Amino acid sequence: MIVVDSFGWIEYFADGPLANDYAQFLSDLSQIVTPAIVIYEVYKKIKRERREEDALIAVAQMQKTKVIPLDISISLSAADISLDKGLPMADAIVYATAMANNCEVATSDSHFAELPNVRFIKTSQ
Questions:
Q1: Residue 78 within a domain
Q2: How many domains does the chain have?
Q3: Structural domain includes residue 104
Q4: 44-48, long-range: CB within 8 Å, 24+ apart, which pairs?
């Protein structure tokens, strides 16, 4: 099981330069754990940059994964991780969700670059 961060989902749905790198993780949606906040971030970005229908299509795909709601345990863990690692709130929630579900995180978000249990996919920039 793996958590694909918002960066990876957006790259995949936009058919960006790293889409194939993320496709390897997204080929079996039953093996993906998705923090609810990732759905928020992906929906918001796609709706803002394209249209609502595209955003809803993306969410429908993401709902085929194991979606994890934000609960008290993950919230407290995320706050501790944010304080300890200096992560922004959403990233800390993603990381705490992954740790609570014994998953790695696949991302290209530089906030995660040096953290353990992260499969960091480098961008060409």
A1: yes
A2: 1
A3: yes
A4: 45/6, 45/10, 46/10, 46/13
Please report how many Cα atoms fall inside a 13 Å half-sphere around the Cα of residue 43, on the Cβ side.
12
Q: Which domain range does residue 63 map to?
A: 2-120
CATH assignment of the domain containing 12: 3.40.50.1010
Q: How far apart are the C-alpha atoms of 40 and 122, rounded to whole Å?
A: 24
Which pTM does this prediction carry?
0.95
Q: Three-state secondary structure along the chain?
A: CEEECHHHHHHHHCCCCCHHHHHHHHCCHHHEEEEHHHHHHHHHHHHHHCCHHHHHHHHHHHCCCEEECCCHHHHHHHHHHHHHHCCCHHHHHHHHHHHHCCCEEEECCHHHCCCCCEEECCCCC
Residue 125 domain-assigned (yes or no):
no
Per-residue pLDDT at 125: 56
Reported as a single tens digit per residue, the pLDDT across 44-75 is 999 999 999 999 999 999 999 999 999 999 99
pLDDT in tens, 3-35: 999 999 999 999 999 999 999 999 999 999 999
Structure tokens at 94: 């993603």
